[in-house]
Specification:
Blueprint: H1 9-12, H2 16-23, E1 27-31, E2 37-48, E3 75-80, E4 84-91, E5 98-109, H3 111-118, H4 130-136, E6 154-157, E7 167-170, E8 184-187
Antiparallel strand pairs: 1-2, 1-6, 2-5, 2-8, 3-4, 4-5, 7-8
The structure holds a DNA duplex.
DNA sequence: CGTTGGATTGGCT
DNA sequence: GCCAATCCAACGC
């Protein structure tokens, strides 16, 4: 499995919808405090843009989403449902408030450690969901704001980007607004994607009712 | 300050 | 398919 060079800051300094499909096939590396190295290959992501009602950044900066408004290439980690963390890559220029949610990945290195973190051994379920991925890689609150372009705790390497024909596109999972945007990108045919069901686009806003 | 519900998961009916 | 778990951000008063 090729890791390749680290992705540079400029890679992230573009719109989330541009960066998202290009993140597929890239390698997310996590270095633990004891020196152990975990690596996964991204197979499913979702873009969240500034004018996007489903985005945490939609109503402006708050203590939770502040990192989304910072420089591109940082990790935005938030806590949800009282028990799970989700990890995002901040994109676009500073101040924009856009990011790409990391939803699923194929384990590459450190599978035993990931299995320990997850409390199960099924490789297909180690990183197949945003909460599962953060648990497998031990990404929690302390990594909120971590610099992927310069840091050592967590970063992204070039890997092998997917051919466009291998990139599939659907609506996003678990959102109740912004369901008209097909901003979930995944590797076609990968068994490592999450089981989450894409949201169904509602009635077209502005159309006549009854 | 009180209320609501969430970019989820896993277990049970 | 349904729902509880379990915290806390966001928002309204």
């Amino acid at each position: 499995m090729r890791l390749g060079p680290r992705l540079p800051r400029r890679f992230f300094a573009r719109p989330a919808t541009t960066v998202a499909p290009e993140l597929l096939g890239r390698v997310l590396v996590r270095r633990l405090a004891d020196g152990a190295r975990l690596a996964v290959r991204l197979v499913e992501v979702e873009a969240y843009e500034p004018d996007d009602p489903a985005s945490h950044a939609f109503r402006g900066p708050t203590p939770r989403n502040l990192v989304m408004f910072g420089p591109p290439g940082r990790l935005y980690v938030y806590f949800t449902y009282g028990m799970h963390f989700c990890a995002n890559v901040v994109t676009s220029a500073q101040g924009q408030g856009s990011a790409v949610l990391l939803r699923a990945a194929e384990p590459v290195q450190g599978l035993d450690e990931m299995a320990r973190h997850r409390g199960l051994n099924d490789v297909l379920r180690l990183c197949s969901g945003p909460g599962r991925l953060t648990q497998a890689l031990a990404m929690e609150r302390s990594l909120d704001g971590a610099d992927l372009a310069r840091g050592t705790e967590v970063f992204l390497t070039a890997g092998e980007p997917l051919e466009p024909s291998r990139v599939m596109r659907t609506t996003r999972v678990g959102v109740r607004v912004g369901t008209d945007r097909r901003w979930r990108f995944l590797e076609r045919g990968s068994p490592f994607v999450s089981p989450g069901r894409p949201s169904v686009p509602g009635p077209i806003t502005g159309s006549r009712r009854s």
